[in-house]
Write a structure and sequence with these properties.
Layout (H helix, E strand, L loop, with lengths): L1 H30 L5 H8 L6 H10 L6 H13 L13 H36 L4 H15 L2 H15 L15 H35 L2 H8 L4 H13 L1 H24 L5 H10 L3 H29 L1 H6 L1
Length: about 325
Amino acid sequence: MALFTRLIIQRILLLIPLLLGVILFVFIVMQFSGADPAIAALAGQGGNPTHAQIQQFRHENGLDQPLIVQYFYFVVNIFKGDLGYSLLNHEPVTQIIGTALPLTLQLTGLGIVVAIVIAVLFGVTAALFRDRWPDKVIRVVTLAFVAAPSFWVALLLIQWFSVDIKIFPPSGYVNPSQGFGPFMLYMVLPMVSLALPIGGALARIVRTSMVEELDRDYVRTAMGNGLPRVVVVGRNVLRNALINPLTVLGLQIGYLIGGAVIIETTFALPGMGQTMINSVINSDPFVVQGVVVVIAIGFFVVNMIVDILYLVLNPRIRSAS
């Protein structure tokens, strides 16, 4: 328990410089993007804004302050739980994110589950049939999954299952509160598109780890003593073999979140990715900054959970610590 507590404290302390760096990076990118939020916001209200109106808007929203001052105030407000207001519709950024975040969490969570199922099913099967035809077929299939970008997979799935045979809708979203069946009907294609590349990459790592574990002395000793193969593989080999893929899964979460942005746009899902893209297009910097900060925190939390699971699955690390 002390080890877990120390790990959590260390990760939380690392979160502070991470957030400061992410916010600074977003500030710099938005500053040199060439878009003027004041012009975009006033133009969205109708008419052509005058120079005086633009200057007044910048002063009222703190956009005429030096970049370092804007950065300082934004950081202070974040630690107060305030992400600012949208310059276009004047809604709190926290409210905008609160509306979009549940969908992104649903999509990412389903994508992770599908990717893990693909990785374990294909990786374990390939290892158990090492160098035989199932292994060769699975290696080719998983390589194809890794090579296929999420957006290309999404377009293929839309063509096959929405246009040709019309099983799933090509776009849209239904809230789970309106029924789990309709919700899953709209989420099948997005979550599969998101999961296939990562599932393929993890499957190859699972296969390699399984092969290494199956060649260890304790496996031959256990089977030589009469233990059934399924017991040895399920109880010992699989648990030890999943340690390395679990570590890689934490790194893949970033790619999963990045893929979710593209998938949400492709399937017209009103999630965090779609919100961020619309905010970039409409030059709404506070929303962009808020979305990026929340995504960075989510990425950090997921990796902390992966680190804890790594300790749970690897007793040697706990003993060393």
